[in-house]
Amino acid sequence: MAHAFSLGIVLFVTWLLLSGMYDVPLLVGLGIISVVIVIYLSRRMGVLDREAHPVHLSARIFAYWPWLLLEIMKSNIDVARRMFSRTPDITPVLIRLPTRLRSDLGKVVYANSITLTPGTVTILVDGDSLIVHSLTRDGADALEEGDMERRVVAFTKETAR
Which residue from 53, 68, 132, 159 has the least number of CB within 10 angstroms? Predict the structure, then answer.
């Protein structure tokens, strides 16, 4: 029930922000009806669960996002420095990155965090490993050290293998 309620809040706030219709009661009412229909259909289809709408991660997101944004900025500066250098130090590498994460949600957060960081792209999530393309060997080595995976484990409160 908490997932349905939080999804309703998120959908309605999104609808309000996108429509800009705060003062027309009929339109606000239609927005509420739309949200109720979406929640009803989501529950009936069985797609409203812990992983589809991860309410349990709400509080921890304020610790994870600042760290991820800092990593994105540092990587962005590194990639820009390499691109604008007279002799770019680029050594593309494809690695298989084993992961201890168990849940699909944990793997998706990890893969997306890698892809959001400039210079690295997750190409495939394959069971207990990810195939990652890195612009440099240094970027691949940083991923293999496992700091990002440890932070994802802490963020999702998942017991790693």
Answer: 159
DSSP result, 29-98 = HHHHHHHHHHHHHHHHHT--STTTS-GGGTTTHHHHHHHHHHHHHHHHHHHHHHHHSSS-----EEEEEE
Task: Look at the block and give the residue holding tokens 């339109």.
Answer: 27
Distance between CA 134 and CA 140 in Å, rounded?
6
Give the model confidence (pLDDT) of 51-80 as tens digits: 666 666 667 788 888 999 999 999 999 999
Q: Residue 127: how many CA atoms within 13 Å on its side-chain side? A: 3
What are the boundaries of each domain within the chain?
2-45, 59-156
pLDDT value for 161: 58
Per the structure block, which two tokens stand in for 115? 């892809």
Q: Is the pLDDT of residue 129 over 90?
A: yes
- Give the HSE-up count for residue 11: Cα atoms under 13 Å, Cβ half-sphere: 20
| Mean pLDDT in residue range 120-141 | 94
- Cβ-proximal residues to 57 (8 Å cutoff; 6+ apart), any chain: 155, 156
